[in-house]
Amino acid sequence: MGRSVMTASHAVASVFFSGEYGEEYEWQDEIDYVRSVIRERFPTFEDCDYWPDRGFYGGEVHAILDNGHSYVTISNYCGLVAVCLVPKMHTSNLAEPWCRRISNNWCERLNKAFNGLRKLGTFSNGECVFEGIGK
Length: 135
Hints:
By secondary structure, the protein is α+β, with helices and mostly antiparallel strands. Helix content is 29%, strand content 32%.
C-alpha cells in the first residue's frame, strides 16, 4: 500500500510543499525557516518540541511552535512536507475559532514562502496527488 506525508489529527489548516534534503541542506534548517516565516506574522508562537499522536503515527508529526490556542506541526515523507495548524482543544473553547480565523492568512503566507502545493485527492492505495499553487 502506498502512502503520503502525515498530517496532524484535527488540523484546521494544512500546507504542503516539496523539499530536497541532503548533505548541504539539513531538515533542521527547514524547520527553523518555517518557524521564522510563521513568527513574522504571528509573533505569539514560541518554539516547542512536542510529538503529538506519537503512538498512532510513530512519531512523524512534530509540533515545532505553539501558543495559547494552537500547535504548528511539521512532517516530511520522501521530500513532501506538511505544515499544519492544530487547535489545542483541551485548553479553551476559543482555540478552534481562533485557528479558523487566522487559517487563510496562515496558509497564504506559507504557500507564498514555500511554493505551496494543493492536494487534489488521494488514490485508494493511499498515495496523494498535488498541483502547484501559482504565486
